[in-house]
Amino acid sequence: MKPILSVQGLSKVHGRGCSKCIETTGPEQETNICSWCGSVVAAHDVSFELHPGEILGIMGESGSGKSTVVKTLFFDEEPTRGSAQFFEHDHAWNLFDLNAAQRRWLRNHRFGMVYQNPHLGLNFNVSAGGNIAERLLMSDLVNYKAIRERALDLLSRTEVLADRIDDSPKKFSGGMQQRVQIAKALATQPPLLFLDEVTTGLDLSVQACILDLILEIQQELKTAMVVVTHDLGVIRLLTSRAMVMKYGRVIETGLTDQILEDPQHAYTQRLVASAL
Amino acid sequence: MRHYELPAIDEQEADSDLHEGTAYNFGFLDEYAKREVRRTILKAIAIPGYQTPYASREMPMGRGFGTGGLQLTLSLIGQNDNLKVIDQGADDSVNAVNLRHFVELTCPGVSTTERTVEATIIQSRHRIPEVMLREDQVLVLQVPYPDPLVVVEPSEEKRKTMHGEGDYSRLLTKLYEDIVQFNEITISHRYPTKINGHYVIDPSPIPRYDVPRLHQSPNLILLGAGREKKIYAVPPYTSAVPLAFEDVPFRTENFLDAQGNRHACMRCGCTHSFLDEVISEQGERQYQCSDSDYCNDQLAVLKLNQTEGVNA
Amino acid sequence: MGYVAIKGGAKAIEGAELAFEALRTAEGEQGTPISLNAIENQLRLLTSRIVSEGGLYHPRLAALAIKQMQGDTLEAAFALRAYRSTKPRVLETPVQSTGNMRLIRRISSAFKDIPGGQMLGPTTDYALRLMRLDLVDESAEVFKNMARRFLKNHAASASLPDTFPKVLDSLRAEGLIPGISVASKNRPEQAFDITREPLVFPVTRSAALATMARAETGSLLAMAYSNMRGYGDIHPTIAELRVGYLPVLLPHPVTGEPTEAGEVLITECEVVAMYEGAEPGELPTFTLGYGACLGHNETKAISMAILDRALQKGMRDGPSNPSEDPEFVLLHIDGVDSMGFANHYKMPHYVTFQSDMDRLRATQMKARGDLHDAPL
Predict the structure, then answer these.
(1) Are C262 and C209 in contact (CB under 8 A)?
(2) Does residue B74 contact residue B34 with C-beta atoms inside 8 Å?
(3) Closest alpha carbon to B47 in B231, B244, B243, B241
(4) In chain A, which residues have pLDDT < 50?
(5) For an interface test with A, which of B157, B158, B167, B169 has the most A Cβ atoms less than 10 Å from its Cβ?
(6) Which residues of B touch C351 (CB under 8 A)?
(7) Among the listed residues C87, C326, C311, the one whose alpha carbon sits nearest the alpha carbon of residue C196
(8) How far out from the chain centre does Cα A266 lie?
(9) What letter does residue B28 receive in the DSSP assignment?
(10) Which of the four pLDDT bands, split at 50, 70 and 90, describes residue C185?
(11) Distances (CA, A) of A116 to A160, A176, B74
């Protein structure tokens, strides 16, 4: 089966960079910071494939580079090196060669993103329904009634009460804000969804609800997803395949079950062992 | 080696060159300024609805009093032109009087008129004349805010990108929120309008009533923002569509009373023009045509009909 | 050729002009019309301000503008700016080094003593702001005597040099501030002409300085103050503040040689601010802020230097407070633009208001449930 997303050699360096950056950073050196020029190697040489309807996990602790990967793919940041392709039935997009208008089109029509911080994904000056409307309006739907119905439908899917549709997200709990974000991301039925630490910081019961929701969505809509998290439980529950990252490098990839049962890399072993 | 010297001034000598230096060029602006404005106009016409930046010159009236419209008029006007200036639809509104007087002063030989049909250039603040204009006429509108996106994004740099990419979703979202809250789109004047299928403009503070006049107009419409230093255009026969939802159509002011009857102008009886609301000395609410020249025309028609009625 | 007949609006305008003039000449027979000389000399700082905000070095016309606008600084600067607006560009003078200034005042807060000395010059910095009642009934005698008194000890100033070295040059020699890049010496950057080009963001430092040079003093001061007070972190020290005359060099009509055609009074302020970390391989240095304006206006030059530094920071790292945001600062400090717009609200707005009333009435009606076809 052809992949929906393919990434080769993705790298991101903050700062001016030098010839020693790669060799002085990484899991063996236990640092992201180049000792020669002070640049931060956030991610180096990340490659992977994602198939339609599949959930891929990127796991790591802070500084691992996992968020950087999705940020570059969603065009929030510019990569230093590497290439990536997004595939549709008849068309392949070379992501980092696209211009601003093309990127915006993909973001509005084919991709979705849910951030850990709802302030990044939601407009707090606009109602919950308005947030969803904004995304629908970006994708050229201009019928008020249809927009309203779709917003209500999405919010009910994400278990937000219909009578909250006109409230500002400022009035919502953290869990509800995330649900609105998910509703918003799904508004255009994107074939590819990025989820960056979406349950981190939420109450456990709320986390469980949201994770269930994500699974339902995947089953129903067959959305391919990249789930970024430091939480093993999330990896176990959601993903079929996973990558483990440390200090910007991918140190282990494979089927989630295998990684969790039989981790190869010493770091992964420590991670798995330390899980509560 | 110099010491601090108190300057000695021969007053007469100093002031003689003051008097010499104050002769103005035809049209007040120097020819370089006019050329720049004309080039900007051409660019604006070539890209309908695009806010073209230009080095707006200071004029002897305040920013906000029509310096943008005035620079357009002064750059276009010639000896064969007949200029009409209106404000709120009226020729004798104070600002219109001031601007017209300035043109008369700085463009000797140019005619001015109140009659819309006789004008070649019409400079207007806040209204478009009721009578349809012709291909040989140019309408110049005075603009305080050229950018409709300013309500959702304060940064000009970011707005430029939004315009370039045709990304008006945040503006449409604002309209959505209006309908949610008020069951209506509450924008009254300055209604965002899409020109030639791409750029959305602020058509200047004309009432909604006048927005349909932009669409496929035979005449060129130029919009000048002096303070914000932008010129934009709606070329002749260009589409101008107010932003709306398919199922929540754009509505104009209806001037209906509580019983649903259309108010009429108390002077000429007209029931199809934009009306000014006036509170009489007795505290009554009365209505009169905003377009004073049109009111005169309608009044003449009314009188003619009355006379004919008597003679019939 | 036809003209529109004068009606109500025109009469009102005529009446307003008359009333304005009547107030200006209210003293009647007892009054002495102010001479332009009096304004230029006795109100020299006011004149400087108008010259600077009008963007035209013509102190005499500035004095006229002050007289005509009855002392309103915003209107006076506006009148001068409008006058300048009609003048075609004749020539551009070459770039000047302010080291050549013929100084009347020069101080440095960074050092106790500097080559050439600290020259306080004409300043009220260390004076007591007590009301001088002796000025209430001044006589012309006082003017004559003052000149005699001031020039009595001029022999002592015989040892003053013609020009004074820039304080920054000594800091530069020690490497404490960035050197002037060689590239810019060989190919100097084109100065931004604020009278010929509109601001399109992001703008160059030259455009920011040009905008601030003719900005309204109070607006500039407020923005700079917000930075000084705590919103910003410039921590400025004035390396040098100079007030003096710069020659205006024009090409000789026959030989083409740059010839001094006159001089202009300017105020210049160079501020040294927080030092920053450097690129690897380079040492950290102090950062600089620069302010300069026509006429004698120290508050403006200092404010400008602070904002120059703040904007450089904002343009590079993104603004962390309003004074570092180029759009926020540069679009709101022009006195002609801001004053015009603030005052334009007094113009008739009844058509737009009619439009607003229509909207509200429609909304109220819907809220009362009178209309049957409400969406949703």
Answers:
(1) no
(2) yes
(3) B231
(4) none
(5) B169
(6) 88-89, 126-127, 189, 205, 207, 274, 276, 290
(7) C87
(8) 26
(9) B
(10) low
(11) 18, 13, 57
Range in B34-38, B191-195, C97-101, C301-305 the model is least confident about = C97-101
Q: Does A152 touch chain C (CB under 8 A)?
A: no
Six-digit token string for A245 = 């990252």
DSSP track, C76-131:
HHHHHHHHHHTSPP---PPP--GGG-EEEEEE-SS-S--TT--B--S--TTS----
> CB distance C279–A36 less than 8 Å?
no
Active-site residue flag, B295:
yes
User: What is the pTM assigned to this prediction?
Assistant: 0.85
Question: Considering only alpha carbons, which residue of chain C is nearest residue B1?
Answer: C162
A143-197 pLDDT, tens per residue? Answer: 999 999 999 999 988 888 899 999 999 999 988 999 999 999 999 999 999 999 9
* Section C22-50 average pLDDT: 95
Enter the tokens of residue A146. Answer: 């249809």
Q: Which two tokens stand for residue A128?
A: 């919950």
Class of domain B31-149+190-242: alpha beta
* Closest to B101 (Cα-Cα) out of A2, C10, A133, A54: C10
Quick one: pLDDT at residue C149?
Answer: 86
The Cα A13–Cα A22 span in angstroms is 10
Residue of B180, B245, B247 lying closest to A166 (CB–CB): B180
pLDDT of res. C362: 82
C357 half-sphere exposure, CB direction, 13 A CA radius:
12
Alpha helix stretches (DSSP H) within C200-349 = 205-213, 217-226, 298-317, 326-330, 335-344
**pLDDT score at B22:** 52
**B289: annotated active-site residue:** yes
Q: How many CA atoms lie within 13 A of B285 on its CB side?
A: 8
What does the angle CA A37 – CA A41 – CA A46 come to, to the nearest 5 degrees? 150
**Which segments in chain B show pLDDT lower than 70?**
1-23, 310-312
pLDDT: which is higher, C31 or C3: C31
Residue ranges per structural domain of chain B: 31-149+190-242, 254-312
Mutate to test the interface with B, among C106, C351, C361, C373 (most CBs of B within 10 A): C351
Using a CB cutoff of 8 Å and minimum separation of 24, what contacts does B153-157 make?
A: B154/C327, B155/C201, B155/C327, B156/C201, B156/C327, B156/C331, B157/C201, B157/C202, B157/C327
Let me know: does B171 contact B201? Beta carbons within 8 Å: no
The lowest-confidence range among B264-273, C1-10, C147-156, C213-222 is: C1-10
How many angstroms separate the CA of residue C286 from the nearest CA in chain B?
30
Chains that touch C (3 or more CB pairs under 8 A): A, B
Distance between CA A136 and CA A147 in Å, rounded? 7
B157 phi and psi, to 5 degrees?
-60, -45
- Please list every residue in chain A whose beta carbon sits closer than 8 Å to the beta carbon of residue B177: 126-127, 130
| Residue from C347, C37, C337, C299 nearest B12 by CA | C37
Task: List, in order of start, the domains of chain A with CATH numbers.
Answer: 5-110+190-274 (3.40.50.300), 124-184 (no CATH)
The pLDDT of residue C343 is above 60: yes
**Residue for token digits 């930075």?**
C227
The number of residues making up chain C comes to 376
**Number of other CB atoms surrounding residue A219 within 10 Å:** 10
Q: How far is CA B134 from CA B121, B125, B131, B265, in A?
A: 11, 19, 10, 26
Is C64 in Cβ contact with B186 (below 8 Å)?
no
User: What CA–CA distance (Å, rounded) separates C359 from B189?
Assistant: 10
- Could you tell me if B124 and B138 are in contact, meaning their C-beta atoms sit under 8 angstroms apart? no
CA–CA dist C156, C153 (Å, integer): 6
Kindly give the pairing relationship between strand B240-242 and strand B230-234. Answer: unpaired
> Tell me, what DSSP letter sits at residue C134?
G
